[in-house]
Amino acid sequence: MNIVxxxxxxxxxxLFLAAGGAKxxxxxxxxxxxxxxxxxxxxxxxxxxxxGALEVLAAVGLILPAALDIIPVLVPMAAVGLVLLMVGAAIxxxxxxxxxxxxxxxxxxxxxGVVAWGRFGPYPFT
Length: 126
Hints:
The chain is an all-alpha fold. Helices cover 77% and strands 0% of the residues. It contains 5 helices and no strands. It is globular. The two termini are 14 Å apart. The model has no long low-confidence stretch (mean pLDDT 97).
């Protein structure tokens, strides 16, 4: 199970590092032009950058604390942060009536939830 949790954390970290990096690197107009990022028109550029920064921080928090053995409790805390971020994303997509995006958000909630459960619960870093 430890290996499964590492794999899930690694996949989530890669995904959110890329997604957050894109939000940080690209201007709002370019993001809104992408079909998967139309939701960005509902938010200010600063809020989009904040979301991107939170995603990047969560990605780093899923891997580095455990890999460096420095405050490894940050790993499940980062996973909980991603759960909250994805719940907010699902709510945003529900308001915009984007069901396929909601499904994606709920899958990510489940994956991050498994990492949080495993690392807070029966498979912590000791």
